[in-house]
Amino acid sequence: MAKENEETEGRKKSGFKWIIILPLILIIAVGGGIGGTILTSKFLSNEKTEAAKQSSNTAKISSKQVIVPVKKFLVNLANDGSGSDKYARVSLSLLVANSDNSKSVKKNTAVVRDSVINVLRQKKASDILNSADSIPNLKTELKDNINRAYGQQIVQEVFVTDLVVQ
Prior knowledge:
Layout: H1 2-58, E1 66-76, E2 87-96, H2 99-107, H3 109-121, H4 125-129, H5 134-150, E3 155-165
Antiparallel strand pairs: 1-2, 2-3
Helix pairs in contact: 2-3, 3-5
């Protein structure tokens, strides 16, 4: 009988220990999770603001400049020898110096569309998608071709707002 009493007392003591240990573990885990979330959000928000500052330094647009959206283009790309036709759907916006140039671009959208289509028709899907420099090179080529068609430096920058190659 004495052994049974000792056994039940031992179980009560070990059960009592678990009643104290489990809530402590739970409190430590929840506190660590909350603390980690707060610290992570502080560090990540600092990184995001630094990245935003860097990106804003690269693309400054003055109050006089105007961004002119251009309707979507759907263009057959040059044949790359695979036997299947490839298409590109592109949406662009053009950065111009002032509202007068904006009006000129809106008035003469045929010049812009013709210039863009002429450039894209000569490209293969691999020309557009294969390297990291392909999109910046395409944007420069589009800007130069549009300005050449206008006969003056009317477009300062080309922004690709949508691009799908199929």
